[in-house]
Amino acid sequence: MFFMASYVALWLVVLVHTMIMIGMFREHVALMERVGHGGKRLHGPTEGWRVPPIVGLVLQAGAPRTQHEAGTIVVFMSVGCQPCWGRREAISEFAKESAGAVRTIVVCAGQQSEVRRFAETLDRRVRIIGDVNGATTNDWRISMTPVAVAVDEASRASGTINNPSYVDLTALAARLREFQG
Hints:
Order of helices and strands: HEEHEHEHEEH
Largest sheet: 6 strands, mixed
Oligomer: single chain
């Protein structure tokens, strides 16, 4: 009898923990993909929101704009953000691979000399804007970095991803093309 009661209690605990984990996973997916499902949006522009212009010091011009580009991926970074330093290679690789399909812009917050040093480590196809006073970061409602925002030709946000990897940036670019079409 005791064995059966403890066995049932164990399965109830497993069931409750499973339900909690599913709820946490759904919340995580909602935050990462910015698709409601009752999840809270931490920061950044929401889908369809017309984004303000990017203001700052152009530190690297990036590749010239082409007529085939579906839009722009804007990555917000900061020189004081360790994950940002770790994402430089992924952003450079994405800019190389997606050249001509989407434009890649990095808006980097920090002191001008530090932002310049950060900019030197990114591929030449990446347009780099120094957001020294934080105006663009504030206007775009960005409260943590790194975060990538897809922006279509009409200056509307079509998706946001926190701490983007190469795969995330590629998925965001595909979402941008869907949003355009």
